[in-house]
Amino acid sequence: MDSFEVNKIIAAVLLIALIVIGIGKISDIAFHVDKPERSAYKIEIQVNNSETNSKVEKVVEKIDIAALLALGDISHGEKVFKKCAACHLINKGGENKIGPALYGIIGRKVASKEDYKYSKAMASYDKNWTFEEMNGYLKKPQSYIKGTKMAFAGLRKEKDRASVLLYLNQNSDNPLPLP
User: Fold this and answer.
1) Interatomic CA distance for residues 70 and 160, integer angstroms
2) How deeply is 100 buried, as exposed, middle or buried, from its count of CB atoms within 10 A (0-12, 13-18, 19+)?
3) pLDDT value at position 54?
4) Within 10 A of 94 (CB to CB), how many other CB atoms are there?
5) pLDDT band at 19 (very low <50, low <70, confident <90, very high)
6) Which residues contact 168 (CB under 8 A, 6 or more apart)?
7) Is 89 in a helix, a strand, or coil?
């Protein structure tokens, strides 16, 4: 193999490299994509700074509770409540299980059952169980009241939550009037 053939091989390899790089540059020019000025998905990151101790306020989603409750059905709520029955009883005078007894829960103060030991997060949550509060809690308990020991994933479907709310309200000595 003489030096002229080696030169041809090296030239062929360089030519191919040039063509590949050239095609890449030409395609970038031909198919130029303008990037948007701001991102389509806005991601907010909570920064915990020990010096400022700033807290990010929880944004509460306003929901039309009357329209939500209109989706519900008490008999469907009784069926859906079976998911809760592993940890809670709903009958009058029912005892606490893993979770507190839920008879008369709607309208009652949060963590007010005296014979049950609540988590610190629940005990410090100073509100009443209204339809709105219970709806938010049933949607995703761990994120609604951070630090609760309730390990339930939540009820995603609006009809399921509305039905359970109606069922819980019905199981009381003094059910609240529906909004």
Assistant:
1) 12
2) buried
3) 40
4) 14
5) very high
6) 77, 81, 90, 102, 105, 106, 134
7) coil
Rounded Cα gap, residues 34 and 28, in angstroms: 12
Residues 36-61 pLDDT 10s: 777 677 667 776 655 444 443 444 45
Q: Which of 142, 146, 106, 143 is nearest to 125 (CA)?
A: 146
User: Rounded to two decimals, what is the model's pTM?
Assistant: 0.64
Instruction: Kindly tell me if the per-residue pLDDT of 167 is higher than 50.
Output: yes
pLDDT computed for residue 75 by the predictor: 94
- The CATH code that applies to domain 65-170 is 1.10.760.10
At 85 the three-state DSSP class reads coil
Q: Is 164 exposed, middle or buried (0-12, 13-18, 19+ CB in 10 A)?
A: buried
- Backbone conformation region of residue 14, classed left if phi is above 0, alpha if psi is from -120 to 50, else beta: alpha
| Domain regions of the chain by residue span | 1-32, 65-170
